[in-house]
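Notes on consecutive records. When two proteins share a document, each keeps its own sequence and its own token line. Never mix them. Below: protein one.
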Amino acid sequence: MDTIKWGIIGVGDVCEVKSGPGFQKAPNSELISVMRRDDKKAMDFAKRHGVPKWSGNADEILNDPDIDAIYIATPPANHLEYTHRALAAGKHIYVEKPMARNSHEAHQLFKAAEASDKKVCVAHYRRKLPLFMRINEILKSGDLGQARHVSLQTIQPKQDPLIASSEEYWRVQPDISGGGIFHDLAPHQLDLLLQYFGTPEVIQGFSLKRSPDGTCDDCVSGQMRFKNDVLFQGHWDFAPADGTIRDTCKITCDLGTIAFNFFRSHTLIVKGKNGIETSNYDPPSHIQQPMIEAVCAYFLGQGDNPCNVGIGLKIMEMIDAFVSKE
């Protein structure tokens, strides 16, 4: 096998630009079939993107002998079910983040993946973007000394262009998403913190519903202490009364600082012994394509797993700790 032939289950708005074309443009990758419950919309996507097959029935994707791997792009409520079914059908899996609605479901998904001979990756794709790879390089180089403290703020209204549109705003329906916008955005941030600083020794936090007509908690505060004594403090607010938008992260080290945005800017500001250096790292047109390329290489036996289910499980444990009411 020199090419991974893909099927997508849940070919919605996220697949239009962020991920779908990446499966067609990545080396050693071919998108041959897509599925959506509304088969007319599946057909529309397929025709516009040049995908040869489409369906309104997931079984047709899962049982297609021409398909090697499944991209599970549904909302989180369906991730565990489709993972079980795809593994039973003998397919490799690339599952969207968050991996599940909570750590309990994530643990079940982890066990299913570990018991299978098929390969499973989680779509924490920002770890493969130039900006975040550069930050990792700086931290690992030691040029700024030991990292000491991380401060993060994410503030925005729940309806924001940053969030992919959907017919039903499932991201604020806990029975579908697991929580609110925090469950959609924070996994990207927590994944990068794990990559930069390793597993946290202490995680604590709390959440509350600030919006009177809200369906879920929309304000989260959390703290962590990592094994190397890096301290983290984060604040997420998706119901600001004045419409404030803020996306900041600052890593303070012994010999300088690293400042960046997770979502709204691609600029990196590094302050060190040689002064202040500002650089821009534009992402690719299809933001998941670098991750898809790494996933294909892993499925073909040409590289390591770029993000395994153990990482996905740890992130869900962190999220559950932050939103704990205890």
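Protein two starts on the next line and is unrelated to protein one.
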Amino acid sequence: MIEVDLEVCSGCQKCVKACPFAVITIVDKKAQIGDGCNMCGACVQVCPEDAITIERKVKDVDLSKFTGIWVFAEVSDDSTIRNVTFELLTKGAELAKELNQELLAVILGHNIEHLSKELATYGASKVIMVEHELLGQYNTDAYSSVIVGLISKYNPNILLFPATHLGRDLAPRVAATLELGLTADCTGLSISDGLLLQTRPAFGGNIMADIICPYTRPQMATVRPNVLPKGEPDQSRSAEVIKEEVSLDPKGLRTKVREVIKTSIEGTKKIDEADCVISGGRGMCTEENFNTLEELAKELNGVVGASRVVIDLGWRPKSVQVGQSGITVSPKLYFACGISGAIQHTVGMRGADVIVAINKDKNAPIFEFSQYGLVGDCQEIIPALIKEIRTRKAGQ
């Protein structure tokens, strides 16, 4: 239930500008909320007088009215759908089949209508699309208000977000607004007794925890990229596109993006999309020694990654950190150079098809995860590898 304290309301109109569904009006200098309100909470967040309150009943909710598996489709800066979305749709299709419910994709942005077909090929039977120029660039207030409104209108059973920078910001805001449970950074999803069983690393990755949310809906989780398999697209599939209209006012948004600074290296693939990743750790000894990793990556058409300690030392940007607090990768070929093999790093790379470890310590834990191990100094072995690769290329 949403209420306006008329004695406190000053009629400042900030709630009118913030409402994404244009259902708030000012009458006699007091805010009035129309019947179309989805209780997204945008007005509550901007009200300077705390005149608007929302009471959300968590207990005694009829859970049977919540149905459908939703996947939030994340759009990249280049106006393409991020690969993790297709991984989530593949898993979502499995969950939907087991629960006998529909699989829906939810996509927000600007000029994105052409993307609906691609979502359908990975199993979405319906696509809920919200287009607005202010959604062209991610904004926490705008995106969370729209998602909360859609949830209040359609009552989904399960809502999955990618555990990307965007998803890790958006999902907690939605969960907090609706007072829902949320499991972050999941590595596995399944159905148990009709509930979503959400699996994630705990205690520094030393154990795997299974978590359920039996009392609130939707059941929400963020899922790491590259931990779930992506199915093959079926071009014969089609989806019903449901277009939702919103009315967003830039004056109602509390934040504004003035500049986007990219820390990724220009002209290289994203680390979570590369077929070959060459990562360096403390054993590389100096920042300059990463130049040899760059040379090896160039020969193998790969990208250079790093362990957390390298990021902390400032040798490489955060965007290439592999591990529990960084990015999960699953390339065809992974080099671990001068990396000891702590669990915090290996949880982010052990999905690789082939792992090659190079370390001076023959007892380093990294060798337990590797198909191939080279014991020795990285500064001697890597140049030798580069030389051999170039020799074989020249002989072709």
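For the record: The chain has a mean pLDDT of 87.
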